[in-house]
Amino acid sequence: MRLITFRTQAGEQRIGALDGEQIVELTAATGAYFRDQKHEPAFARLAQAFVPPDMRLLFAGGDSSLDMARRAFDFARSKGAELRGPGGEPVYYSRGEVKIQPPIIPRKFFHTAGNFREHHEEASKAGFSHPVLPWIVFFQNIDAIIGPDQPVIYPPHLTEELDYELELAVVVKKAGKHFNAEEAKSYVGGYVIFNDITARDVQRREMKSGVFSFCKGIDSFCPLGPHIVTADEIPDPHNLGMELRVNGERRQVSHSSKMSVKIPEILAHYSAMGYSAGDVVSTGTVSGVAAFSGDPKAWYLKPGDVMECEIEKIGVLRNPVIAWEQAYGKQAAQV
Questions:
Q1: Annotation: CATH topology of 2-100
Q2: Distance (Å, rounded) from C-alpha 77 to C-alpha 104?
Q3: Which residues pair with residue 322 across a beta bridge?
Q4: Cα 154 to chain center, whole Å?
Q5: CATH of 102-333, one of 2.115.10.20, 3.90.850.10, 3.40.190.150, 2.60.40.1180
Q6: Which of 95-104, 123-132, 300-309 shows the lowest mean pLDDT across its residues?
Q7: What per-residue confidence (pLDDT) applies to 114?
Q8: Per-residue 3-state assignment (H helix, E strand, C coil) for the chain
Q9: Among candidates 97, 102, 80, 95, which has minimal Cα distance to 29?
Q10: Quick one: pLDDT at residue 212?
C-alpha cells in the first residue's frame, strides 16, 4: 500500500491508501468491511480500534492493524467509489478535495550521516571544513516536518547557503530495543522519501563544536513523503534508483546499493536508544549536493526553485522554495 495522511474539507485528519489517483480513507473502509463483509454489530468501534485515523497509531497496531488496513483497502476497491463508511461518510476521495499532509509525524526521527561514501569523497574534494564521518547519528526536529508540495521557507537572516539532500528513510512499525540485524527486518514497516534541507554556512559554524542540528532543524527544513510505501512492496530497499532535481535539472543521481552500512545494521545499532512504532530512520544522502559542486553559489537553493526527490518504487516528493516574507508577511519584517 501507499499510505498517506490528509485532511478533509471539514479539517478532519484521516489516513488513506492510494488507488491510482483516488484515495481510500482506511478507517471508513475498515468500518464498511466489518459491517458489510463480517456483519459485525460493533463495526464502527472495531474500525477505530484496528485502523485509527492517525498514521503513527496505525503502525503502533503492528501487523494486525496493517493487515486489516490491507483487507479494508482491497474490500473498498472491490466495491468502488459508491461505498460509504459507518456514518454514511465517503470512503473514496479525490486529491483535489483534500489537503495532503506529511505522511507521519514520528516521536523520534533518527538521522544517519555519512553512510554513502561518495558523499564523503565529494566533501573531501571540495575542501569541506570537516570530514563526513561514516554513519553518525543525530536527531531531527519533528516540528520542521512538511509534506508533499508544501514550501520550504528560505530564511535570509539565517543562511545564504540553502542546500538539499535526498535520502531514503525507514518507518519503524513496532516498539523495540537492543535487537540484532537479523531481528531488525521485522521492524521495517515501510519506506518514505526524505529531503534533508541544510543551511551549510550555519552547519560549518556548528561543526566547530563537533555537533550540528540547528542547520537542519529550522522550520520547514524536513520535507517527508509523498507517501509511505509498505515494506511488502519493496522486497529489496538496497536496489532503488535515486534522483533529485532542481527546476528539472538533475543534481543528485545515485542508487541505494551504494550504502556503506545496510538498513538492518543501522536499525540494530540505533536500537540501543529504543524505538517507538512510527519512528523514522534516514539512511544518509548521496553525492551531488550544492555545497560540494563546482559552483555552489549557482546551485544553492533560492526562492522560486522547485525540488523533486525521486526514489524508484516510492515516487516523487516535490517541494517549492519560497521567500521568508511570502511565508510570514509582516512578522518577517520584525525579525
A1: SH3 type barrels. (2.30.30)
A2: 24
A3: 153
A4: 20
A5: 3.90.850.10
A6: 123-132
A7: 82
A8: CEEEEEECCCCCEEEEEEECCEEEEHHHHHHHHHHHHCCCCCHHHHHHHHCCCCHHHHHHCHHHHHHHHHHHHHHHHHHCCCCECCCCCECEEEHHHCEEECCCCCCCEEEEECCEHHHHHHHHHCCCCCCCCCCEEEECCHHHEECCCCCEEECCCCCCCEECCEEEEEEECCCECCCCHHHHHHHEEEEEEEECCEEHHHHHHHHCCCCCCHHHHCCCCEEEEEEEEEHHHCCCCCCCEEEEEECCEEEEEEEHHHECCCHHHHHHHHHHHCECCCCEEEEEECCCCHHHCCCHHHHCCCCCCEEEEEECCCEEEEEEEEEHHHHHCHHHHCC
A9: 80
A10: 77
The pLDDT of residue 131 is 62
The CATH 2.30.30.230 domain(s) of the chain lie at 2-100
CATH 3.90.850.10 in the chain, residue ranges: 102-333
Instruction: Provide, rounded to the nearest whole percent, the portion of the chain with pLDDT above 70.
Output: 93
The answer, yes or no, to whether residue 182 has pLDDT greater than 80, is yes
pLDDT at 22: 97
Measuring CA to CA, which residue among 245, 249, 267 is closest to residue 195? 245
CA dist list (Å): 237 to 257, 259, 305: 8, 11, 29
pLDDT confidence of residue 207: 83
In the numeric block, which cell numbers belong to residue 180? 540484532
pTM over 0.70? The answer is: yes
CA–CA dist 335, 326 (Å, integer): 14
The gap between the terminal CA atoms of the chain, to the nearest Å, is 44
Kindly tell me if the per-residue pLDDT of 28 is higher than 70.
yes
